[in-house]
Amino acid sequence: MRGATHAKWAVCAVSVALAATACGGGSTVAEGAGIVRSSWGDPQNPIEPANTNEVQGGKVLDLLFRGLKRYDPKTGEAENMVAEKIDTTDQQNFTVTLKTGLTFSNGEKVTAKSFVDAWNYGAHIDNKQNNSPFFANIQGYDDVHPASGNAKAKTMSGLVVKDERTFTVKLKEKFSTWPETLGYQAFSPLPQAFFKDHDAWLKKPVGNGPYTVESYTKGSSMKLRAWDGYKGPDKAQNGGVDLVVYTDNNTAYTDLMAGNLDLVDDVPAKQLKNVKSDLGDRYINQPALIIQTVVFPMYDKRWNKPGMEKVRKGLSMAINRDEITKQIYQETRTPATDWTSPALHDKGGYEEGLCGDACTYNPEQAKKLIDEGGGLPGGKVQLTSNVDTGSHRDWMDAVCNSINNALGKGAVCTVNPVGTFADFKNQIAGFKMTGPFRSGWQADYPLIQNFLQPLYATGGSSNYGKFENKEFDGLIAEANRESDPAAAVAKFQEAEKILAEQMPAIPLWYQNGSAGYSDLISDVQLNQFSVPVYDQIKVS
Amino acid sequence: MGRYVIRRLLQMIPVFIGSTFLIFVMVYALGDPVAALFGDKAPDPATAARIRKELYLDQPLWKQYLHYMGQIFQGDFGTAFNGQKVTELLASAYPVTLRLTLVAVVIELVVGITLGVVSGLRRGRTVDTSVLVLTLVVISVPTFVSGYVLQFLFGVKWAVIRPTVSPEAPFSELLLPGTVLALVSLAYVTRLTRTSIAENVRADYLRTAVAKGLPRRRIITRHLLRNSLIPVITFIGTDIGALMGGAIVTEKIFNIHGVGYQIYQGILRNNAPTVVGFVTILVIVFLLANLLVDLLYAVLDPRIRYA
Amino acid sequence: MDLAMSEAETLEKAPGGPPLGTGPGKPRSLWSDAWYQLRRNPIFLVSGLLILFLVVISLWPGLIATGNPLECHLAKAQEGSQPGHPFGYDSQGCDVYTRTVYGARASITVGVCATLGAALLGSLLGGLAGFFGGWWDALLSRVADIFFGIPVILGGLVLLSVVTSSTVWPVVGFIVLLGWPQISRIARGSVITAKQNDYVQAARALGAGNGRMLLRHVAPNAVAPVIVVATIALGTYIALEATLSFLGVGLRPPTVSWGIDIANAAQSIRNAPHMLLWPAGALSITVLAFIMLGDAVRDALDPKLR
């Protein structure tokens, strides 16, 4: 192998004068065996645990950090990682005990203070961290993060360091599944280096995970190397990971085929037809914690007056999900039959078919229901989404065609494309919609609560349709107080049945994680956030 | 001549102020960027308000603009939302794009003028018709397709080049992207050259040159071409902007992190400092390019003088 | 082949002026002379017929396509040619033939109107700037520079997103707004060269007024590059409409256009190249017709060719 590499370099050296381009591709392989070259996107925000809320930054955090808990990539269950145990007697006061002997890659010990300082930093309004609401149920959050004005305290009173390995957390109210949420990356510990020289840390982040940052060129690449000193159970099985920024996933796919890349974790929709012939079985397509829905503006009288639930249901029944997921998405989306995700598994609260007939294509019944409910407002329906990312335009056209074909009244459904996500977001966050609009939801942790409460409970943080239903709210509150997980799940599902009746949002499909990889690597899997489990990848 | 150049350079000042203001207002009109920073989640009101305050977004438009200009004069072009300084982005994107543009312009000049001269001299013949057909293909097939197909053939199927450009973006890797970028403009350059040549081939001075028995090569390069080039270089002067700022598709296909990409990102994220910074430099490039073109007029046609 | 030879040939082949005696009694003006030339040019006739055909199709697409361009059946997505559907289906399962025929109206309206608008505005402003020079030139050229700087995407998102009209006119207006600077630079360049010609200087010396000089001596000699650029721009403007539509600010559904279909097809080029072939072919023919027309007009205006 070594000889071959040398020979290759020799050939390259000779041919440089002729065609300098030809050797570019091979260089990465030659310099360090065992490196996984993976596609990446430029993170939206600087990489900080409490400020990262999208997949690309999340990828790096997953390589660099280990929190108290970690979700098993296969089962999705939250397992202790840095935590030795998390105890509670009343579902409100928790005592966290850490494992011993763990350090950050710069040598600092991982202590109770690493967590408490990190969480206080993440919650404090002055630090403008996107994920600060994740700390909102800790006692004292409102003092460091008031709704307006300056902070009244530096730290949250609910967090107390007992000794090097132990700290206690007091929540504002009972929340039985709170420890399960701690696998989310916002709850990662931070070394003191983060606070001492913040700019230097951002240039080269330091964490306690299986990898360390070797170099980071913003906007183009990050080289991570396996950290020898890592003591966790999920030690890296490869020499490192090179993340390369691609501005277009199509290009990444081309590079994968050309052998310049080992792993593309987002195969473009238009290439799905070729995946089998290009990659054979080196392709993964599995459920992730993502659901796509179409939300109705319940704050608009025309969509919310009595009888309109029939119209909303009718529209749902006019959408041929099977055909769209097959023809547009080549089955990398699965027709949705509830409001959660199969990645939760039955135990976590996913229930296939919970939505019942209302999510099954039935043009006859759709027509009938819409007529019974008084018809579409103004005889028309306009579907809105941003079109600057993803393949939103394609499915919107397909959904409208499906509705138009089912109703047989001409082009009653039209699409309303919005140029930028920012514009779209401002419109929905400002409650300015007059018709149904796209909503994609990726759960932060594999809990059914996360699929329901923020989206459909009154005052929920992402309840963009302003759906309000007392019975639903009551069931959610009951479920949160329940200490038995199975009983809690049952309550959540009871609440979900109200969604099936009222149809404030039409479930379209569950989005899968899809990834393709080269023949140089093996043991590739995706976790439920559709991020590759890098540490398990083996390089041949 | 010297005074003319100085006057033209002085005109940069109002253009600089005008274009920064115009672009600033346009990005402002795109709307509030803060909500989008929170992804699919609802923005936390307190955090969003704090971010707006720090970015001066809670101020009226004119105050935002003055604040921005004030910072520029201290050498601070602001920051993109991912925490990178706009000056850093400019320094990394412009050299790459300049190289890409240079490749494209050279291809336009060499290939476009050659094809134009040949088809202009052989009007109505097979060569002329083939060039016309090529022109039509280039116009009707989108860059996305030509770029993708060429990349697939050269990079994957025959594996003779690396399909994407590395961050250093050396000239050798930019040959294919430069060709793709130049394709549409090639159609213009070829047709413009062809028309000029066809027109000038009948001019009196050319008959004189032919009558004098000058060598064919010398007639074409010194007499015919020189007098036919003015529309061509005018076009290329105007095209530099399109090549530099509008190469979004080409840059995406070949994964080049250049000016087009940065402007596009800045627009999608409603980030005024990025867009204004990049566009302003672009406008200055046009000014210089157009000045150069005007000076070239005088070189190509000595009758044209500037005072 | 020797240059002198080919030169001699073209000279022989070039049609002579109007035959003596058959022409009208009094000498014709340059423009009516050009029209006379034009009518006798076969290229002009061919391009004229093509354009007539395209206009008829735009006005009455139902003449040659009986289907409904908006009737799509996803089950047939990307299927190839079959009886009754010679061009196959696109990604949404719509009939490619019907959509190509129905797309003519929007695409040709956008292409022709935007080109005319940009060419007229551009050559007027650019021509004046080149002819008069001085502060007028400086002002116009610098305004054009700023316009060059506006990224199409930014301009489209800002200016077109506020318009709710579902007609093609906002798109046409926007393309004219972004397109005129380029044509004005070209026109300015040719006018600067043309006004140096001996006969223009002679006319000036003889006391010809500015208007007369511009119209009779400068414009006919400066128009060729503008025509060339405009005819090619016609094709790129039709494609530009698709870019705008993809941003969500171009033509609104249910309008059908080649640009949108070409852009859609481009994404699936590996699996369904037939989707690209037909709308792109239609665009090629349109551009060809206008390039031929432009060539014919240019030839007619060039007295040296007679």
From TrEMBL, chain A:
Coiled-coil stretches: none
Gene3D superfamilies associated with the record: Dipeptide-binding Protein, Domain 1, Dipeptide-binding Protein, Domain 3, Periplasmic binding protein-like II
CDD domains: PBP2_NikA_DppA_OppA_like
Transmembrane feature ranges: none
Record's keyword annotation contains Signal: yes
Residues of the signal peptide: 1-19
Positions of the Solute-binding protein family domain: 80-462
Annotated InterPro entries: Peptide/Ni-bd (IPR030678), SBP_5 (IPR039424), SBP_5_dom (IPR000914)
Key words, A-Z: Signal
Protein's UniProt name: ABC transporter substrate-binding protein
Provenance organism: Streptomyces luteolus
UniProtKB/TrEMBL annotation, chain B:
Keyword Mitochondrion applies: no
Gene3D superfamilies in the cross-refs: MetI-like (1.10.3720.10)
Membrane keyword on record: yes
Signal peptide (UniProt feature, chain positions): none
Superkingdom assignment: Bacteria
Transmembrane domains' residue ranges: 12-31, 98-119, 131-154, 174-192, 224-249, 275-300
Topological relation to the membrane, as annotated: Multi-pass membrane protein
Subcellular location: Cell membrane
Domain ABC transmembrane type-1 as annotated: residue spans: 94-297
Keyword terms, alphabetized: Cell membrane, Membrane, Transmembrane, Transmembrane helix, Transport
InterPro entries: BPD_transp_1_N (IPR045621), MetI-like (IPR000515), MetI-like_sf (IPR035906)
Major location category of this protein: membrane
Annotated family: Belongs to the binding-protein-dependent transport system permease family.
PANTHER family: DIPEPTIDE TRANSPORT SYSTEM PERMEASE PROTEIN DPPB-RELATED, DIPEPTIDE-TRANSPORT INTEGRAL MEMBRANE PROTEIN ABC TRANSPORTER DPPB-RELATED
Protein name: ABC transporter permease
Organism per entry: Streptomyces luteolus
